Amino acid sequence: MEGGGRRVVAVGAGLAGLGAAGRLRGHGSLRLLEAAARPGGRVCTRPFASGLAEMGAHWIHGPSPGNPVFCLASQYGLLGPEAALEENQQAEAGGHPPLPSVTYSSSGRVLSPKAVSEARDLFYALLASTRAFQGSKEPPAPSVGQYLRAEIARRVPTMAGGVEEARRLQLAVLAACLKLECCISGTHSMDLVALEPFGEYVSLPGLDCTFPGGYSSLSERLLSALPEGTVLLNKPVRTIRWRGSFREEGDDSRDFPVRVECEDGDAFLADHVIITVPLGFLKERYQEFFQPPLPEWKVEAIRRLGFGTNNKIFLEFEQPFWEPEQQLLEVVWEDESPLEEPSADLEANWFKKLIGFVVLQPPEQHGHVLCGFIAGKESEHMETLSDAEVLSAMTRLLRRLTGNPSLPAPRSMLRSRWHSAPYTRGSYSYVAVGSSGDDIDVLAQPLPEDPQDPRPLQLLFAGEATHRTFYSTTHGALLSGWREAERLNHLLQPPIPPPLPPQP
Ligand SMILES: Cc1cc2nc3c(=O)[nH]c(=O)nc-3n(C[C@H](O)[C@H](O)[C@H](O)COP(=O)(O)OP(=O)(O)OC[C@H]3O[C@@H](n4cnc5c(N)ncnc54)[C@H](O)[C@@H]3O)c2cc1C
Ranges for the Amine oxidase domain (predicted)? Predict the structure, then answer.
């Protein structure tokens, strides 16, 4: 394996790193260095209750032939029979798959589906209208949030036929829709998400599906396809020295431009390094992570792009308090409105950012488990609390929503903490106000930038945040890894030119 060929090191064994490693051809040796004790990164399945909990990625978004995660998972036989159905793959859900739901309000009542759907339909019509501003030189607002709120404000006088109580309720539902959008975009507020490039994100067709054996079954399959010893776990990289001239001790015959130094003192010399660390990690550590430092244009893209937090809270119950057909329990705070500033008192009100709960299916596998979603600063505050504090806040919340003060407390709880995770520092990327899709392309650009450099492609960049149309997804991550592997393959194994035509 070692031989005299080019040496490649990949940093990070998430889907981007595993995908890149599986696609590389014609190199001499390959090492994949992972900081954590397990592969998968933000794909992370844990046992919980009688089933599994997805701490990171949950669904294949848009499971259809254009989605490489769906194709691989199908090929490996990792999906249930429903996901394979033609009609499932063709359904257009636009990133918001419909689930049978019930909506609880903060006053302890279940809201009428009609009242909820009227406001929700308005929200999704407005959200869809944001696509019209793609490429616009003068979008009506800098952010998605500001645009939506202005459009909602314009409609207030005629909303709900002008009936005050019904209008308030519609505004409360719209506020809940905005919070859900924060979870989807992985941001504290939609006011941080840029309006003009928002439509560049592509939703693939297909009704989102899950992995019956856990999302990690995919990363495990990708890992098992690599030669043994390729992946080194518990190997956090501290510094990547590039544009250098490094030699192995006692071997003067070869000179490598890159030296990858780990926190435990180990070092790996390489011709090429594929960097797949999350944008959150790069934002925090780019200064000391690269020596010499990255060029300013790259740093600017890292700074400008957005990377926020979305967390999950899993609650296991002895008995369900919801109906068997209900798959989504939504929460509406009746005193909220998108036209008013949300409370900044995180300690007192953090749990109000929770959008509701997905019921894990099927209960025969998982038990009676709800998975709550919460984004933004409130989510980051939740990470600082103890398990007992979160459990007690969730119990109080559910008692209030159901109007049942003696609703039994959950039997157990598990939550993610992506913002505190030192090698992730958040959940996923978004195109923030002040940045654009071009920044994503800049982030993906290899270094050194001069294509004529005699030692090209020293640093290559992959990971979900480097995919211009599928950022924030597993398929974006996988495709970005494949993209960088192909870039190297092209250098290491240039395509064989077609035979010359016979000479006359
Ligand atoms: C809560 C949550 C829910 C999500 N839900 C979905 C979903 O339903 N569907 C979907 O498609 N996507 C979802 N995503 C997004 C999806 O999980 C990610 O886009 C994707 O997994 C990212 O893969 P990646 O390889 O780019 O990064 P990662 O998976 O983060 O891999 C990067 C790896 O680099 C390692 N690393 C970092 N620093 C170092 C270092 N210094 N040295 C060595 N290793 C290092 C990390 O430990 C990590 O393993 C979700 C994410 C989260 C957090």
Answer: 15-488
Which atom from ligand 1 is nearest to the alpha carbon of 475? 11
Evaluate whether 7-43+212-306+432-492 and 97-208+310-415 have a shared fold: no
pLDDT at 231 exceeding the cut of 70: yes
Residue nearest ligand 1's atom 19 by CA:
473
Residue 99 in this model has a pLDDT that exceeds 90: no
Q: Whose CA is nearest to atom 1 of ligand 1?
A: 56
Tell me which residue of 93, 65, 71 sits closest to 184, measured CA to CA. Answer: 93
Please state which CATH class domain 7-43+212-306+432-492 belongs to: alpha beta
Mean pLDDT throughout 429-434? 98
Residue 101 φ/ψ, nearest 5 degrees: -130, 165
At residue 485, φ and ψ (nearest 5 deg) are: -65, -45
Cα(348)–Cα(399) distance, integer angstroms: 17
Q: Are 464 and 429 in contact (CB under 8 A)?
A: yes
Who's near 229: CB < 8 A, 6+ residues apart?
none
Other C-beta atoms within 10 Å of 157: how many?
8
Q: What's the fold here for domain 97-208+310-415? A: Polyamine Oxidase; Chain A, domain 2 (3.90.660)
- Using alpha carbons only, what angle is made at residue 290 by residues 286 and 293, rounded to the nearest 5 degrees? 85
Interval between CA 278 and ligand 1 midpoint (Å): 7
- Ligand 1 geometric centre to CA of 115 (Å): 37
Given a cut of 80, is residue 235 above it in pLDDT?
Answer: yes
What integer pLDDT is reported at residue 374 of this predicted model?
A: 98
Using the mean position of ligand 1's atoms as its centre, give its distance from the Cα of residue 47 in Å. Answer: 19
Residues lining ligand 1, CB < 6 A? 11-17, 33-36, 41-43, 56-59, 61, 236-237, 276-278, 281, 310, 312, 416, 418, 423-424, 427-428, 463-464, 472-474, 477
**What ranges do the domains of the chain cover?**
7-43+212-306+432-492, 97-208+310-415
Ligand 1 centre distance from Cα of residue 35 (Å)? 12
Question: pLDDT tens-digit profile of 61-78?
Answer: 999 999 999 999 999 999
How far is the centre of ligand 1, averaged over its atoms, from the C-alpha of 42 (Å)?
A: 3
The Cβ of residue 335 has, within 10 Å, a number of other Cβ atoms equal to: 12
Percent share of the chain, pLDDT over 90:
89
What are the CA-CA distances from residue 161 to residues 42, 173, 175, 320 (Å)?
A: 46, 16, 19, 37
Instruction: Write down the pLDDT at residue 488.
Output: 96
Q: How far is the CA of 185 from the centre of ligand 1 (A)?
A: 15
Short-list 309, 355, 324, CA closest to 176: 355
